[in-house]
Amino acid sequence: MGVPLLNASGCLDPLTAPEVARSLDVVVTKTITPLPRRGNPPVRIAEVEHGMLNSIGLQGPGIDVFVDDHLPRLAALGVDLWVSVGGFSAEDFARCCERLDGDERVSAIELNLSCPNVEEAPETAAELVAAARAATTKTLYAKLSPAQWDIAASATAAVAAGADGLSLVNALRGLALDERTLQPRLALAVGGYTGPGLRPVALACVYACAAAVDVPIVGMGGVVSGRDALELVAAGASAVALGTVLFADPLAPGRIRAELGAEAAARGFADIANPSSPLVVRTGKNLQTDENDTA
Amino acid sequence: MGVPLLNASGCLDPLTAPEVARSLDVVVTKTITPLPRRGNPPVRIAEVEHGMLNSIGLQGPGIDVFVDDHLPRLAALGVDLWVSVGGFSAEDFARCCERLDGDERVSAIELNLSCPNVEEAPETAAELVAAARAATTKTLYAKLSPAQWDIAASATAAVAAGADGLSLVNALRGLALDERTLQPRLALAVGGYTGPGLRPVALACVYACAAAVDVPIVGMGGVVSGRDALELVAAGASAVALGTVLFADPLAPGRIRAELGAEAAARGFADIANPSSPLVVRTGKNLQTDENDTA
Amino acid sequence: MQTERVEVVANEGVGPYRLLRLRRSRLQPGTPGQFFMLEAPGRVLPRPFSLSLAPTRELGFLVEAIGPGTRAIARLEAGEEIRVTGPLGNGFDLSVRRPLLVGGGIGVAPFPYLSERLNGPPALLGFRTAHHAEAAALVPNAEVVLDPTLVTDALPDDPGDVLACGPAPMLDALEGLVPGAQLAREAPMACGYGACYGCVVERDGWYVRLCVEGPVVRAGDGAV
Amino acid sequence: MQTERVEVVANEGVGPYRLLRLRRSRLQPGTPGQFFMLEAPGRVLPRPFSLSLAPTRELGFLVEAIGPGTRAIARLEAGEEIRVTGPLGNGFDLSVRRPLLVGGGIGVAPFPYLSERLNGPPALLGFRTAHHAEAAALVPNAEVVLDPTLVTDALPDDPGDVLACGPAPMLDALEGLVPGAQLAREAPMACGYGACYGCVVERDGWYVRLCVEGPVVRAGDGAV
Lengths: 295, 295, 224, 224
Ligand SMILES: Cc1cc2nc3c(=O)[nH]c(=O)nc-3n(C[C@H](O)[C@H](O)[C@H](O)COP(=O)(O)OP(=O)(O)OC[C@H]3O[C@@H](n4cnc5c(N)ncnc54)[C@H](O)[C@@H]3O)c2cc1C
Ligand SMILES: Cc1cc2nc3c(=O)[nH]c(=O)nc-3n(C[C@H](O)[C@H](O)[C@H](O)COP(=O)(O)OP(=O)(O)OC[C@H]3O[C@@H](n4cnc5c(N)ncnc54)[C@H](O)[C@@H]3O)c2cc1C
Ligand SMILES: Cc1cc2nc3c(=O)[nH]c(=O)nc-3n(C[C@H](O)[C@H](O)[C@H](O)COP(=O)(O)O)c2cc1C
Ligand SMILES: Cc1cc2nc3c(=O)[nH]c(=O)nc-3n(C[C@H](O)[C@H](O)[C@H](O)COP(=O)(O)O)c2cc1C
Ligand code: FES
Ligand code: FES
Prior knowledge:
The complex is a heterotetramer, with two copies of chain A and two copies of chain C.
Chain A: E1 5-7, H1 18-22, E2 27-28, E3 45-48, E4 51-54, H2 63-75, E5 81-85, H3 90-100, E6 108-112, H4 125-135, E7 140-144, H5 151-160, E8 165-168, E9 172-175, E10 190-194, H6 199-212, E11 217-219, H7 226-235, E12 239-242, H8 245-248, H9 252-266
Helix pairs in contact in A: 3-4, 4-5, 5-6, 6-7, 7-9
Chain C: E1 2-14, E2 17-23, E3 35-38, E4 47-50, E5 58-63, H1 68-74, E6 81-88, E7 99-104, H2 111-117, E8 123-127, E9 142-146, H3 151-154, E10 161-165, H4 168-177, E11 182-184, E12 200-203, E13 206-209, H5 210-213, E14 216-218
Parallel strand pairs in C: 7-8, 7-10, 8-9, 10-11
Antiparallel strand pairs in C: 1-2, 1-6, 2-5, 3-4, 3-6, 11-14, 12-13
Bound molecules: flavin-adenine dinucleotide (FAD) (2 copies), flavin mononucleotide (2 copies) and FE2/S2 (inorganic) cluster (2 copies).
């Protein structure tokens, strides 16, 4: 059994790239909010030396259009589907989760508690998780920001509030200036910083949270190779999500799955998902999803 | 007049490299704590793809030995000297600041509120600043961590509590694993992540704080070239500190000063320190130090 | 859409531009106006390029080096390999009666292939300098104007079916002058296949992905 | 300490190692056992290397490629330039009456220069394989032992003034066997000139910087 590979939320539209979606073990939607959102004005992306910035701003159709229009088409792809939901209050999270509760096309819900491109929610992460928990019996993954002093404390609070797993990490905030004019390259100046430069931070967050809580962790942040994925597993992740790398290489899931297997085997680590292997720094936990998987 | 160049705290010992110290406009000491500290066990450093990790853990002689033994030798170098102080409580900061108050060999104090390699102080940054402020009339720079959701709010609180300037930013936390064994490369696993991968984050922090407060900012994080330094100035810094780059290039101060001048001139920005230039995203503020400068 | 690692066959100068010829491998050339994402060695993201030429077993791209990504691509040497994804997006609608190709600067890029597929229609091309205008040699039947004359100054009264590619101000002007013109627009793109929502342009008050809804759009269609 | 950008004169194979010859420029060779920080192209930090040979106008370094930094340095080609800082740290004390050089593996690196400065004293060198032992040709008067024999097995009863360089277990063993031996130790280093406090070793319950207090230390001096 290999390590499940997911896409990072917001880094794949399964409807425009079904073949990429099918090459993953789990597909995660872009974050859905209660109401439709236009998102941020362009320019929305800028490459930097060791990653990229994005300022998408949660553009999306809103939960109702999503469920009525997108979800049937997503379900038709026959992939294991997680829905990422977001918002600006506990009520927002509750509303989205309620709408998805009992929907058997959805095998888990990821709570985006950490979008770098929207204003901070007034509630704490734990309060948002608690509201979601009250609204659904579905498996809940809490997605946390690396931009905090003590992510393990947040993770502990999120799990206490009812999260079944963690998704680590979202983007940091970054700025890039135009080479010539020195003005910000993104229309809203600051955006989410992702890609290779984020990797050591993501690894530290997974490591800290894996020591603090006993739930499965989806690790992500700057993964480009099987070696990067293996390191997240060694630090405590039970699954790995691919974000920025999908833009450069739509074949990344297959390639990284193969590389990961080879890197693990080269270290005498045949059963990479086996949590009792001495090579794993933290005990890996199996990826948890609802039993009513569509896949 | 150019942009003042400093070393980042902990990235230069003026006593072992006086010629490097003299090539800077201001020299900042490694963070000094009230009592002597052994620091963390080795391995303390690990290179990563786009930066490095360190786990020094504030090794140092303590404020008393520093003042009695190191300070006379530092003063003899004839450089403009800032002392970085740190600790684990408001009392610690107060004790160090008191000891330096009125010492004319010291032109400013930097408060390290954000070391990634020690446990979190129970007090908030603003409380630590307030304690330092009560203990000295010296110019105080508050050094903040980029690992927080809203650094501008911390900056505002630090200034309200009496900080005269900001030093932005300290390291993020990162983890690196051994290529072969997948065990942490640092003895204490997680360390401070610095160097080029930190650059977009540092730029965003300077930009956010420059918009929020009206005090001078020392920008730092991943500066390798004059262009990097110029970008920090464009984002709102009035001075730039060099950290990791000094390890690879002890001649960096002179090189970066020359490159910075050339890059600025190439954009028709002759007087780089002139805050009214339209090329500067945020109004630059002049670097503030005490009048009893030794330099 | 297909992704392949393909070999650089040649990298030739055309005026100030580079004509990069890649082995086609299993990639399809697609419709003129469609584009490919080319790996930019040493950079995190690939860069979008219109297919410029489609000789047997090759894909040709005309590249203007304007930033780090295009500079890395313009430096590629024969024998090196890069990752290429495509064809992507919607190309030109070729069912036109009286085609006129209108282009400016590097906007000439898709025209050699487009001209071939339309059997050499007339083309009106604007360039900054005579050096840049050397690229016009790749397009049969081309009339060239140089700055300060603009292509919109030289446009016939009844231009017919305009298929255009060039800088945004040129396309914006054509938008007003020639309703129904087909305009190949640009936006910074991270993925090129609808994954990132980075390449949006405004249409009817909403943001749409240019890589999915374009890059060729109709003048007057509400997309800017 | 001086920093210069210097040119690679040659990169030659010596068994499994590379002998990198750099133009000396204004850099001083220093005392044997001192080291230089060499830029590792494409990496963030430089890497420490003992000076191995000091022919006129050149500085020679013997390099074992074991990780990303040493691999990048081992790949350097004649004509390329790298930044070099040195000489750094404290070398061997050369005022010895009966020198015996004791080394293991890449620990042979400082000995060619050291041997020259001491007029060819006897040397005892241990290697993993005969291939590795080819490096012994750089050191006059060398007796070679191969695994599983250890240099400590072959050490004479009265070894005289031992100057040693090699893997930590070998130096630790010598520490017990030969009080007063001079041991060239290693630690990961970021700067090499006392700036980072990264290279510490324990001495008398405190941490001291090996790049400042070493890399050559005295056996029995409390430094590990
Ligand atoms: C569908 C499509 C087809 C294209 N076809 C070609 C082609 O055939 N040949 C060719 O040379 N170029 C083409 N381009 C443009 C090319 O992709 C960009 O020049 C390239 O991405 C710039 O990358 P860079 O790293 O070199 O410069 P960057 O640093 O990304 O940009 C340099 C400067 O150009 C601006 N810029 C960058 N990309 C764009 C853009 N897409 N639109 C407007 N301004 C931009 C930036 O804001 C910046 O000021 C095409 C673009 C698109 C979207
Ligand atoms: C004063 C001094 C002089 C040296 N002289 C030479 C020389 O002349 N020739 C030569 O080939 N090498 C020499 N070295 C060792 C050389 O600097 C290291 O091999 C190099 O820094 C490793 O970098 P890397 O990126 O290739 O490997 P890394 O990825 O840094 O390391 C690969 C593996 O080796 C271990 N390692 C790395 N550096 C050291 C170290 N210094 N001590 C112990 N283990 C380490 C790491 O933990 C890791 O397991 C010297 C080191 C010092 C401190
Ligand atoms: C263009 C883009 C859009 C993103 N949108 C979302 C989103 O809608 N919801 C979310 O939780 N994370 C979003 N993210 C963050 C990613 O899911 C992921 O956490 C981050 O990119 C780190 O992984 P990477 O370095 O592999 O890209 C987005 C990232 C990018 C680059
Ligand atoms: C080895 C090392 C030691 C450091 N020690 C300190 C310290 O004692 N006090 C402090 O405020 N910052 C310390 N820092 C952080 C730097 O001052 C600086 O904030 C950080 O390195 C970012 O700059 P850079 O990317 O240019 O290195 C240290 C950084 C490094 C690499
Ligand atoms: S470029 Fe990614 S959605 Fe269009
Ligand atoms: S290597 Fe930096 S202090 Fe020794």
